[in-house]
Design goal:
This protein has about 140 residues and is mainly alpha-helical. It is about 80% helix and about 0% strand. The protein has helices spanning about 5-15, 20-45, 50-70, 75-80, 85, 90-105, 110-115, 120-145. It starts with a helix and ends with a helix. The relative contact order is 0.08. The mean pLDDT is about 90.
């Protein structure tokens, strides 16, 4: 089979992607998560929490809800429909932390959950922390001169 024949075969078998439908789902779910975060921020401030503390509580709440939905097996079904709409906000990071921990929990707390917890999120944390140290040093050096 030549490359052209193979490409033709793939085109015949592949389903066309409903790009506009996918974009609307991602926008709607991602926007809904952000609106829920804003509503939580307003609610916490209404309860008398300072804006900075309310922002921290919003992050904690969204992480908890995403972790709970991941544990219940609902987050993945939402993410299949919404795509990047669930993965871009903080909820995607929460899912990336909880999923490997749940998958390998049968191997024990140390060799399973502990070892696999950071398989996806570990590089993100390592590079994020490293970059913040480098940027902090650059800022500090700029202030000296």
């Amino acid at each position: 089979m030549t490359n052209q024949q193979y490409n033709q075969y793939v085109k015949e078998k592949a389903k066309p992607s409903p790009i506009w439908k996918d974009l609307l789902w991602a926008f709607g779910v991602g926007g809904g998560i952000c609106c829920a975060g804003q509503a939580l921020l307003n609610l916490y401030q209404h309860w008398g929490v300072s804006k900075e503390d309310a922002g921290a509580w919003v992050s904690i709440t969204l992480i908890f809800v995403a972790s709970l939905l991941t544990g219940l097996g609902l987050f993945d079904s939402i993410a299949k429909r919404a795509g990047a709409g669930t993965l871009v906000p903080i909820t995607g990071f929460s899912n990336a932390m909880v999923s490997p921990a749940l998958e390998f929990r049968s191997e024990g707390f140390v060799t399973g959950t502990g070892a696999k917890l950071f398989t996806v999120a570990g590089p993100v944390l390592a590079y994020g922390i490293s970059a913040s140290v480098v940027y902090g040093l650059i800022l500090w050096l700029q202030q000296l001169f």
